Amino acid sequence: MINTAKVLYEFVAEPGNNELSVNEGEIVTITNQSIGGGWVEAQNSRGEVGLVPEDYIIHSQSGGGSVPPLDLSFFDSHASTATSSTTHQKTNGSDPWAAFTTDASGGFSNNWAAQPQGTETGRTSTHEAWSSSVQSHPQAYQGPGADDDEWDDEWDDGKSTGGYTEEGGEGGGLNRGAASMKISLNKFPGFSKSGPDLYLLSKQGPKGKEKLPIYRGEVGPVWLYPEGQLDCVVADPKKGSKLYGLKSYIEYQVTPNVSVFHISAAFGPTLKRLSLPAADLLGRFEEEFIKMRMERLQGWMTRMCRHPVISSSDVFQLFHSYKDEKDWKTGKRKAEKDETVGVMVFSVIEPEETLPDLDLLEVEQKCEQFSRFTKAMDDGVKDLLNVGQEHWKRCTGPLPKEYQRIGKAFQNLSSVFNSSGYEGEATLTDALTAAGKTYEDIAQMVAEQPKKDLHFLMETNNEYKGLLGCFPETIGVHKAAIEKVKEGDKLVAASKITAPEKITMTKRASTMSYALQAEMNHFHSNRIYDYNRVMQLYLEEQIKFYETIAEKLRHAHGQFTTM
Amino acid sequence: MINTAKVLYEFVAEPGNNELSVNEGEIVTITNQSIGGGWVEAQNSRGEVGLVPEDYIIHSQSGGGSVPPLDLSFFDSHASTATSSTTHQKTNGSDPWAAFTTDASGGFSNNWAAQPQGTETGRTSTHEAWSSSVQSHPQAYQGPGADDDEWDDEWDDGKSTGGYTEEGGEGGGLNRGAASMKISLNKFPGFSKSGPDLYLLSKQGPKGKEKLPIYRGEVGPVWLYPEGQLDCVVADPKKGSKLYGLKSYIEYQVTPNVSVFHISAAFGPTLKRLSLPAADLLGRFEEEFIKMRMERLQGWMTRMCRHPVISSSDVFQLFHSYKDEKDWKTGKRKAEKDETVGVMVFSVIEPEETLPDLDLLEVEQKCEQFSRFTKAMDDGVKDLLNVGQEHWKRCTGPLPKEYQRIGKAFQNLSSVFNSSGYEGEATLTDALTAAGKTYEDIAQMVAEQPKKDLHFLMETNNEYKGLLGCFPETIGVHKAAIEKVKEGDKLVAASKITAPEKITMTKRASTMSYALQAEMNHFHSNRIYDYNRVMQLYLEEQIKFYETIAEKLRHAHGQFTTM
Asked: Residue A177 carries which DSSP code?
């Protein structure tokens, strides 16, 4: 299978840095998909080989069509820290931070929009480019809407795509219930379409909906965490295709755990298959790629499962609990009728009595604080990603080449010495050869190391970049609500709202603020755990790496002698 | 003191490699002399900063004059493995290997001359350039002749330059005898001026000269090593100047040891001062530079002291033993009258009776073997030097910068986290800051490491490059002798020589071959020791380096927690 790709955007190589300049529309051959760190190795028609950002190319489709092949933004954009599971929106390709600066009433966000896009070295990194140059990078932050055309039909009619395939052959007993289902997990109307008015001025709360309580925890307002926690295991990827092979996808088996609070244990462990659009034509790199996608899906599913609000949403629970097609369809129809979507999610949020209503100033201060923090963290995370991407490139490119050259030079000298004809040469030449081979080993270790440590650091930060990308919109809605409340007196004077409605609006802004605070506290708590964990893992692997090198060198050292 | 330098040769920077392109005649400011590995950091008039090969620039003289500033070839070219201390010659700037291919009767050396000069990466390294492009690099392999103009007057008249300075203030007792002397250690006529005929056809041996015996050792013909060995310590560099400050130099104190075989112990330890032309205007890097020169001088003096033939030469012994000006002048005049210089040194060499005369075929085979080996080793050594130079640049340039960026990114994220306002943040932020500082430490360690290990590996190989550079001429004389003996019958037939003279010629070629074999065995024995030693040192330091990093990371790791 020829592994070709089309270049989406011009990329100018930094000279001497193992990169390859490519032009928009150019067809290149992918020579190594497993570079990692956001790079692939490609060859152009002139036979030149070098690294290209993987986001700048799109894999050619064997059938002539094309799908976004790596689609790295998929999980990023799905990961949500919004105040509920129903706060996603189609961002239609616009940078969430940029969108926010447009929507929000100005002031604080100016220097935000003016944020330089390049890295320290003057290069524009791919990640930065995503969030800064929407016109020329249409897939940037496409978010949940990106694959809508493909997934809408799955949602509406599972049968048309070979969904719900019975896979009874996979195993006996409980596994009989395994079903294949395609799902877009982010079909929720967003905040910005409606704005906060719908909620702030709504006449009555939702009927018969379970409330989402916020109580006062040690760190401030927090969500109520369910006693049992949803969880699931993503595994066993399988390739499928539709439209007579024109489009292909990978199905992943998702196994929910049984001890789920909201779901009857009677269902037992069921196997579902969650499919994602496949990156086709990856040849020998496919396996690695699918593994990475699976890891990301696992990470995202786990994060969603552990989010107290998202995991309690009807549709999410349905996905976990359905056992057959009928279940799924029924549940889906019910979920589609849910009115507490968009900003109306706040109508089911209920701060406990110990939490007094906040005045507008407090609401505003909290909002500003979260805004500053999430923006600063977004910058910090992107900075680390840029640094990591550069480091990855060095570790897989020039550095191992250099160690290899050192190794070769030692071995070369050894073979020259071996030709001296002088007696008693063997000890030195054996030792020199061993030292040379050790440096070749080190070269290989250096090249393979990023996948063992930097990979996870990058993945975590990529996930957080995605999470942080949801905040501008969330904060934007809060800011809009604050502005609305500020106009309260004027609106009352103009008889657009009544005085009691103005009071309700203020109270509801307070509820929104509590929801945001609870969400931030959830975010902080997860963040502290996640960064501790990933840093431990990173440093553990780094320690092993350096210790192994030292050990190898000690072995080589022992062979030299100056008796 | 402004640290400026004039560019001698155009240098085209490899882009993205931290190098600076410079043009011939351009004046640059040296911003960092202590990069090492053959590089200095310079700034051009447009303010651009980058690395330039130190051999491509010449430091400006404050007084308007100029001296070859780093003069790295000095010791290289002085280090000799020729068959005696009197085999040096002015090569007048020509590549010794190239000279050899011209002098020697062709055939084997063709592919030698066609040897590519660039490195694997297509760059022309400075060392390669030295030996390949004599026209554009007039100082290349200038050898002993380079400083003749400066040092001849010292040799002829010490008083004119402040030589023989009494430095009684330095210490009492034995140190009273300390004297300052300037010496060029390579004022010997070379082989190629005379060719081998002088020796092959000389009528009689030298009168009253002590013979240099060669005996059969375990590894073949070997020199007789003196019971006591000359040795000396080079220390205490002092700056001096002459010509009203226009030219400056560094004087080094050379202290010979007392247990010298040929030198009466009655002299006791005397202190001499050996001066070398100074690289002026080095500013804050001067100290480091002088230290490096001193190390090289020490290495070279030790090597000469341990060479059984060189250390027994009159002039070398004189330098070690003289205690005052009168001694020196007397000895010098005697040495100047020595007739056993150039090829005539073979006339004092005497293979012991156990060593039978070699026939011409054996002589030729040995010569070919040494020629192949020394050429191959010269290539191997230069390859290692090129690799080392590239590695040095990476270790002192891009790599620590990257570790610094990683460290900064961690610390940056830590300070963002610190601003969260969330309780229980301190443990993570402290740990992240510590991890960040650890990577900054690692950056510094990486940048400083080459001076601790690669430096010595490079120095040893540089020394061997110098030693190997003497072989083409030596082998050339042997090849010429072989050709001469081959013509023997023809010469007898033409009555140019007598039949007994022809027999003498063959016997003398055999003596020359024994001398070369003894010298090669001396070279091999030293080489095996030197490379074992330097590899041990290199690997020891590398082990320490990696272990220290692992230890630092372990410390940082311990601060993270996922309770």
From this structure: G
**pLDDT-based confidence at B82, cuts 50/70/90?**
very low
d(Cα A547, Cα B317) in Å, to the nearest integer?
51
Q: How many angstroms separate the CA atoms of A479 and B235, rounded?
A: 74
Which structure tokens are listed for B400? 């620590």
pLDDT at A196: 87
Q: In what order do the strands lie in the sheet with B179-181?
A: B179-181, B272-277, B247-256, B232-242
B4-60 has which CATH code?
2.30.30.40
Cβ-Cβ contacts under 8 Å, B366 against chain A:
none
Nearest to B528 among A394, A424, A536 (CB): A424
pLDDT digit string, tens, across residues B97-128: 433 322 222 222 222 222 233 323 332 222 22
| Residue A322 pLDDT > 50 | yes
* Burial of residue B258, with CB atoms counted within 10 A of its CB: 0-12 exposed, 13-18 middle, 19 or more buried: middle
- Calculate the alpha carbon distances from B349 to A211, A453, B83, B353, B358 in Å: 107, 65, 10, 13, 15
For B432, which residue in chain A has the nearest alpha carbon? A535
- Contact criterion met (CB below 8 Å) for A212 and A224: yes
Chain B residues closer than 8 Å to A531 by CB:
413, 417, 428, 432
Q: pLDDT: is A224 or A282 the higher one?
A: A224
Which of A508-512, B232-236, B262-266, B299-303 reaches the highest mean pLDDT?
A: A508-512
Q: Which of B372, B416, B562 is the closest to A377 by Cβ? A: B416
- Candidates 1.10.760.10, 3.40.1160.10, 3.30.450.40, 1.20.1270.60; correct CATH number of B92-141+356-563? 1.20.1270.60
Q: Which helix (H) or strand (E) holds B65?
A: none
CB contact under 8 A, A422 and B521: yes
Q: Pseudo-torsion of CA B516, B517, B521, B526, nearest 10°?
A: 10
Tell me how crowded residue B423 is: count the other CB atoms within 10 A of its CB. 12
Domain ranges of chain B: 4-60, 92-141+356-563
Query: DSSP states of A435-497 as a string?
Result: HHHHHHHHHHHHHHHHHHTHHHHHHHHHHHHHHHTTHHHHHHHHHHHHHHHHTHHHHHHTTSS
Separation between Cα atoms, residue B310 and residue A53, nearest integer Å:
62
Q: Read off the pLDDT of residues A7-55 as tens digits, 9 standing for 90 and up.
A: 888 888 876 677 888 888 888 888 887 777 778 888 888 888 888 888 7
Is residue A183 scored above 70 in pLDDT? Answer: no
Q: Does B553 contact A533 at a Cβ distance shorter than 8 Å?
A: no
A222 HSE (CA, 13 A, CB side): 17
Return d(Cα A203, Cα B298) in angstroms, integer.
94
Asked if A370 contacts B366 with a C-beta cutoff of 8 angstroms, the reply is no
CATH code of the region A356-563: 1.20.1270.60
| Beta-carbon pairs below 8 A across chains A and B | 198
What pLDDT is stored for residue B273 in this prediction? Answer: 58
Report the DSSP beta bridge partners of residue B36. Answer: B39
The Cα–Cα gap between A472 and A478 comes to: 10
* Helix residue spans in A106-212 (DSSP H): 110-113, 126-132, 148-156, 191-194, 197-200
Residues 6+ apart with CB under 8 A from B537: B453, B456, B457
For residues B206 and B289, the answer to whether their CB atoms sit within 8 Å is no
From chain B residues 64-93, the ones with a CB under 8 A of any chain A CB are none
A504 touches chain B (CB under 8 A): no
Is it the case that residue B65 has pLDDT exceeding 50?
no
Provide the pLDDT for residue B207.
Answer: 67
- Confidence class of residue B24 from pLDDT cuts 50, 70 and 90? confident
- Nearest Cα neighbor of A383 from A463, A465, A452 is A465
Closest CB to A413 among B380, B528, B539? B380
